Amino acid sequence: MDGYPRLARLMGSNPALAIFRRYGSLNAQNILYMQAEINELEKELQDIAREDRLSEHAERQRYSREWWRLARAQGADSLQWKKCLEVRAKLNEYSCVSPRNAETRLTLRLDSALLNAKEVFSMTAPIEQDIRFLRTWLSRPESGDNFLRGGEASLWGIDNTSDLVALSKRPGEHDVFTNWIANSVLYLFHRYIGHWIDHKTPNDEEAGFTEYNDTKLMAALTLLATLLSSTIPVLSTVVLYFARGMPLRLAMIAVFVTLFCSTLAIFTNARRVEIFAATAA
Asked: What is the 3-state secondary structure (H, E, C) of the chain?
């Protein structure tokens, strides 16, 4: 098995590697064109409505006040209603959310370009090491073997990095510390120690890649962060107890407050307001 089937097997067995392009520019361009179409239809509808309102035909003059007359117009007098239906169809493509005819009334079908684009743009970007691994997998002779040709060869290229999305997120937080471990420390660990351990992915052993368990790695990092977070307050109390003189104690307080804030910023995904609140407490 090679080519797209083998790539699909890799993504199926490793959901975090299910990375695709969002085609953000094309989605935005499509919405812009639809917006321009609707804008033109709006002007055409306004012109027709104005002609009907100023018409010498009494029936057409009532269209703006009596919907049922407008909807039942025939022949040349029905231009405004036909344009309304045209606008309605285009709006349904652009921004309509309609209930799905199913057992539950709570389920909605997002069938508009605007809402679909919103969903696409809100999708999570893949983490750096997954993109790097996928590119490596595609290029190595024993795995992807550069099977992509022509325009397809640039699908996961450097130029499209900002346009990539991941269908699945890896477990745990992806803070500065975790990313550093995954991008640097884990690489060095594998180079000098980990390659002696059997972690081969069962679905693609012939590719020679090594897989480490995300859950175990996150558990170890969480334990480390917990120990560090509990050590800092105790350490600060002990240091302040032995510190002599108010200036020295104030300096130590400033040092430990800075250390505490830095730890929150590096080891967690805490927002700035949460860091300020924790520091003030």
From this structure: CCHHHHHHHHHHHCHHHCEEECCHHHHHHHHHHHHHHHHHHHHHHHHHHHHHHCCCCHHHHCCCCCHHHHHCCCHHHHHHHHHHHHHHHHHHHHHCEEECCCCCCCCEEECCHHHHHHHHHCCCCCCHHHHHHHHHHHHCCCCCCCCCCHHHHHCCCHHHHHHEEECCCCCCCCCHHHHHHHHHHHHHHHHHCHHHCCCECCCCHHHCCECCCHHHHHHHHHHHHHHHHHHHHHHHHHHHHHCCCHHHHHHHHHHHHHHHHHHHHHHCCCCHHHHHHHHHC
Q: What is the pLDDT of residues 219-236, one digit of tens each?
A: 777 788 778 778 888 888
- How confident is the model over 113-126, as pLDDT tens digits? 888 888 889 998 89
- Exposed/middle/buried for 158, CB within 10 Å: 0-12, 13-18, 19+? exposed
